[in-house]
Design a protein that fits this description.
mainly alpha; 44% helix; globular
Amino acid sequence: MRLNYPAQVRIIRVPCTGKVDILHILRAFEKGADGVYLVGCMEGSCFYEQGNFKARKRVEQARRLLEQVGTGGERVQMYNLTSGEAPKFAQFAREMTERIRALGPNPAKLAGATPAAGEAAERGAA
């Protein structure tokens, strides 16, 4: 099945969303991403047991840090799907793209990309 989602969506596959660290999320913004969303398995159905719960906590931490540095926490989102919900994945991609389009470009990108969020996380502010 061929999925139809916006061309600007970049997919990075990981074995489990629990492997995505808060720094991965923040570095995406430092490198110019306008938004980041994670798509993991349904809560309670993680092969690695707690992966999607860890990912959700990291997404919330990233949202708080992005709010603190003025980028906007609403630019980060997490969705949960089963493996049979590919059309829903494409729907989430379109919804997230529309959300980001409404928010406008990453403020850090407009201001000349500041590493403030990543540095704050590295210092343990999360």
